[in-house]
């Protein structure tokens, strides 16, 4: 699972860099939407799972 998180964080970093250089509002909106999706995925992966043995 850590490789999934690492990939998401790497993608997030690249998108933040792109956002700083985005030439148009449409590009910024697209990048911000992708960042929201990555943040949602990271939040989901960061949640503790159900305890075993319940």
Mean pLDDT: 90
Strand content: under 5%
- Low-pLDDT parts are none
Number of helices: 2
The largest β sheet comes out as: none
End-to-end separation? 23 Å
Helix and strand composition category: mainly alpha
Question: How many β-strand runs?
Answer: 0
Which series of helices and strands comes N to C? HH
Residues in helices, as a percent range: over 70%
In angstroms, what is the radius of gyration? Answer: 15 Å
Overall 3D shape? elongated
Q: Can you describe this structure?
A:
The chain is mainly alpha-helical and 54 residues long. The chain is 78% helix and 0% strand. Helix 1 packs antiparallel against helix 2. The longest helix is centred in the middle third of the chain and has 22 residues.
Topology:
Elements: H1 2-21, H2 25-46
Which features does this protein show?
mainly alpha; 54 residues
In short:
The chain is built from 2 helices and no strands. It has helices at 2-21, 25-46. It starts with a helix and ends in an 8-residue tail after the last helix.
């Amino acid at each position: 699972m850590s490789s999934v998180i690492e990939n998401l964080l790497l993608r997030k970093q690249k998108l933040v860099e792109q956002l700083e250089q985005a030439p148009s509002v449409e590009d910024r909106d697209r990048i911000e939407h992708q960042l929201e999706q990555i943040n949602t995925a990271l939040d989901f992966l960061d949640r503790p799972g159900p305890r075993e043995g319940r």
